Amino acid sequence: MSTLLDLVRPDLRGFGGYKSARSEALRGDVWLNANESAWANPADATASSRRYPDPQPLALRAALASLYGCEPERLLIGRGSDEAIDLLVRALCVPGRDAVLIAPPVFGMYAVSARLQGASLLEVPLRDGEAGFVPDFDAIADAALSQPVKLVFLCSPGNPTGEALALREIEALADKLAGRALVVVDEAYGEFSGAESATTLQARCENLVVLRTLSKAHALAAARIGCAIADPALISVLRACQAPYPVPTPCAELALAGLSPQVLAETRQRVALVRAERERVREALVKLPGVKRVYPSQGNFLLARFGDAETAFRALLGAGVVVRDQRAAPQLGDALRITIGTPQENDRVLAALKSCSAAGGTVTREAAA
Predict the structure, then answer these.
(1) Per-position DSSP letters for 102-125, written without gaps between them
(2) pLDDT above 90 (res 26)
(3) Is 367 a member of any domain?
């Protein structure tokens, strides 16, 4: 009978990784085991940066586990979701043999990590229908079972497409791929969605990994704090493959402060405002003559198709507004992704696009969704 660890690269099964000075359970008041400076840097007001950080800060790990409703041993803290993606690909994929499956258009780091590891990349494109972009779960399962796929990356809500995935579809896919591949659900935008987290499936699906981050809803992008939530045995493997000190002390302290009850209450209010603004901006966009379609979104952004995306992009830049040009992405040759900002910033977006329309920078309008 296969186990979850059978999916790990054979040469990394039992791999212990680097044993840093902070990984030893030692106690003392004179620390001379890590070749650190005996004095703080003169610019270090807190005198805390001369010591190497805790590789997995216990208080932060507990706070994140409480936030995401999981046990601390199921959670690995890393440098944003990007590090978790990289660790998963490195730990599971044998270069030149194993494959990663994605459903484009989607977040680009999955493909980048696969290429860096020498893993093949399989693509099962999202289907663009009346309800928006949706994965073809049957095609994903068939492709993953017919090829040496070790990882299937799903994004919910999708980036840049905005769709939230049904838990029943995720569970069914994980069941089909049990013993064959991991299903990784990237929930970077989960706070903006009304959908339940895929972590609720993990008790039944040991081959399911969920990624979360403090970069989006929690406004801590520069702190680079993200995590992977998975079976404890897999978390141990990923930790062994991780750099010795992945979480800088100032970042951990900032993140912990950002997860206090008072701050979390304010964060929830801001998320509610983003969701309300998302609908307001969507309703305004669909009325503009140059907008062909606005996709439904569960993220903090909207994906819109334009009759003349170049003119719209330049009009926004001319107004000092920078949005994400998606025209190089598969199926999105006429699309821009617009993050939901403050109400004032959103007004600037709409004003610039209205001016663009009034100046004649449009083509025939199609039905908007």
Answers:
(1) E-SS--THHHHHHHHHT-EEEE-P
(2) no
(3) no
Task: List the structure tokens of 339.
Answer: 């993050």
> Which of 31-45, 118-132, 267-281 shows the lowest per-residue confidence on average (mean pLDDT)?
31-45
Residue 363 lies in a domain: no
Q: What are 196-209's pLDDT values in tens digits? A: 999 999 999 999 99
Residue 91 covered by a domain: yes
pLDDT value of residue 368: 34
Instruction: Specify the number of domains making up the chain.
Output: 2
DSSP code of 170? H
Alpha helices in the chain (DSSP H): 58-68, 80-92, 109-117, 137-146, 167-176, 232-241, 249-258, 261-285, 309-318, 343-358
Q: Does residue 233 sit in the same domain as residue 203?
A: yes
Q: Is the pLDDT score of 255 beyond 90?
A: yes
Whole-angstrom distance, CA of residue 162 vs CA of residue 305: 14
Residue 192 belongs to some domain of the structure = yes
Q: Is the separation of the CB atoms in 160 and 109 below 8 Å?
A: no
| Domain limit, last residue, from 259, 289, 305 | 259
Distance CA 212, CA 312 (A): 32
Please give the span between the terminal C-alpha atoms of the chain, in angstroms, as a whole number.
48
Q: Render pLDDT for 57-78 as a digit per residue (tens, 0 to 9).
A: 999 999 999 999 999 999 999 9
**In which domain, by residue range, is 27 found?**
4-259
